[in-house]
Amino acid sequence: MTLEVSTAQIEAVAEQVQVHKFGGSSLADAYCYRRVARIVTEYAGASDLVVVSAAGDTTNRILAIIDAKEEGDETDDFGMAEVLLKQLEKYQHGLITDLLSGDILTSVMEASKQDFSRWWNWLAGGEEIKNRPELLSYGELWSARLLAALLQQQGIRADYIDARSFLVADDAPEPLIRVEISREGLLNRIAPHAGTRFIVTGFICSDPNGRSLILGRNGSDYSATLVGSLIDSKQVTIWKDVAGVYSADPRKVERVVSLPILDWREAEELARLGSPVLHPRTFQPVNRERMVIAVRSSLKVENQQTRIGQYEDTEPTGKVLTALADVVLFRVDLRDAKLIEAFEELDLTPLISWNEIAQHQAYYAYHQNHQDYMTAWLEQVDSKNNASQLTGYAMLALVGNRIQETEQFGVFKQEVSEQALRRLALTPDNNAVVAILEQKLDNRLLNRIHSQLFNHRRSLGVLVVGRGNIGSAWLSLYRRLRERINEQMDVRIIGILNSTQMWLDYNGLDLTDWQDQFERLARPYEMSQLIPELPNAPYDELVMLDLTDAIAVAQLYPSFFANGLHIISANKRAGASNESQYSEIRTIQQEYQREWYYNTTVGAGLPLNYALNDLRNSGDTIRSISGIFSGTMSWLFENFNSEVNFSDLVRDAKQRGLTEPDPREDLSCQDIIRKLLILAREIGLRLDWKDIDVDSLLPEHLAEIPLDEFMQRLPEIDEGMQDLYADAQKTGKVPRLLASFAVQDDDTVRARVGIEYIPEGDMLANLIPGENIFVIYTDWYHEMPLVISGPGAGKEVTAGGVQSDLNQLLSRLAKAK
Ligand code: ADP
Ligand code: ASP
Ligand code: MG
After folding, report:
1. Which of 242, 254, 278 to mutate to test the pocket of ligand 1 (most atoms within 8 A of CB)?
2. Separation of 578 CA from ligand 1 center, angstroms?
3. Residue 1: its pLDDT value, please?
4. How confident is the model over 28-52, as pLDDT tens digits?
5. Which-ligand-closest: CA of 277?
6. Range 608-792 classified under CATH 2.60.40.10
7. pLDDT digits (tens, 9 = 90+) for 514-543
8. Does the keyword Methyltransferase apply (predicted)?
9. Residue 531: DSSP 8-state
10. Considering the entire predicted model, what is its pTM?
């Protein structure tokens, strides 16, 4: 190749031409392409070079087609490969027709159709496309051609360049670029065309014989700095879907901090430790004295950006928390000196390595992506089988120059030491501290550690289950109190769920018109499948508000706790489940150290369990509690006398919404038994359903019939109820449905729910219909009881009680650090 361009032209290129790079996510659909075209016109100079990746997930799609074809070669069934290829063709043609029109559309479509006919031919067994890199190259070729055409259509001088026409490399696991010949080829192509924006394919190059090669997954960042260094450009701008490099991956961590500047060594270390934000080879070709790399957002151009350059003299601080979910440890016998030497000389440096002298072992930690490469490499060098592979590890690292001197170093060490830490080490250049953990990583953990390192405000994600009366009332209360609630922690509602539909958004729901939004945005879901996903919600802490009456939800409490959620229940089903379920819930709750509040399950908003806990914490002992625990029963009996039929009262109460949908739930005293169990367990007593002596108001013969029929036959209970009333009157008393439990002298518990006759003047006989009353005897309150009474139901008081639980949780969590 001859150099036809003058030195002056070369110098002009170096001074004037900058490089821009757009990744696949910036080119995912027609809308993205238009945005990129606008950026290229407004933010790039008239002669700038633009490096592009394949649109969206095209590279993954191509790989899937190749795999399906290979499988087809074995099974003789190419159905899958055909389906995938058709989808890819549709996607690519869709982009073209959405973006182009007229002659340009015709010519680009024509070229694309030719490409796809080669693909179909290849799939049918024709040998036209020779190797995998050649197939992969199409992805970048299509995006470069399309973007150039879109610019041309908008009247901008633009063209595209297939990088294989100038970028030459020798084949190797990481292709070795032949710099001189590549530079010459590129300058030849562009220097004569000042004023044309060239779109260059990222990711690909060719060997000296013209065979396609690829630069490794996500290699387009590298292409961009390569191209930049070939023309000695001053700046390469990498446009991403994120506005620069942040203190952690913004897709996983909330409230990340943006980094205006990053030193080369920090950026390089971050890439080496596997962060997807920049490819590890990006920095290799860079002239660090001259070039600056800017990372900025193609989605929000106005946002800030990160400039990577020579900033090593700035005050050392921990900059980025980065994580790898899957790490493989290679354990090597230290006595095999040859093998150790091979590891030490290997080009691919481990995340970290260390020796355990006493066991004669060395460890080298690698990213899971390198496992295949390392396995193949070991087969060649490890003749004696002295190396073994251990999986099930994860990595957390904090990157920053002179990390050891930073304040965050100590915080990081402290945080990881509370995990299943296998090894903590500084990297040799002191640019990062790396922790290898023998456990799974989830975003909750990342968030927690991140907020310890970078923000002092912690966050709580709230999942609201149940959107009935209480759910709605609590949501409006929350909206009213939001500012106050957010004082202690950053609290956001991340989901509203009913039994079949959920509206979930980890960024936090906008609660204006939430009912309408729920109708529009809620999707079907399975609770049991959702729960294991929740640890990925980017919050330090998560809480589930169970505002249902559902057994199905209560049964999942162990799973909620095990996945890291705290629980606030208005639902009685878990607190009153049978002894074995209950103790399972408590065991898991303790094991995972989660909080569980259920203040509203007894007496709705009444401050009952605060009083009980306060007494107990101050040294008192509760001896007995009795009273009227059910608002429904209170209403029925306070209105009952010899003049009215009990059945009419039940009907009336049902109509007013004072009973359960099936009033038998109330009449059989189920609801009261639940409350009694919860109260007794709250003060540390062991009590189960079978231990409670119950006089149900529901005759057995009415228990199993359909609800309609029951409502019709309700008067069958009237006679018995009238007899009861008359019987009580004989001694000047009235019947009331009481619940009680008392600790006996031998420490056993006597518990009972049933009718008792109360003197007409007694306070238990003179409640406001619906009122609850709890009469508490303790060591200190033994002559006169402590009495708590008031409304025991109602959506507002219950919502308030739920809020009171949330406040308690917040102060507990805020204190916990
Ligand atoms: P491209 O569009 O260039 O292919 P990638 O998707 O490969 O971009 O890389 C960008 C992604 O890197 C972001 O979407 C983000 O989720 C992830 N990422 C991980 N760590 C960080 C970090 N510290 N700062 C910014 N982004 C990060
Ligand atoms: N398209 C290639 C890939 O997906 C290169 C890149 O995106 O940087 O790996
Ligand atoms: Mg990428």
Report:
1. 242
2. 49
3. 45
4. 999 999 999 999 998 888 999 999 9
5. 1
6. no
7. 999 999 999 999 999 999 999 888 888 999
8. no
9. G
10. 0.65
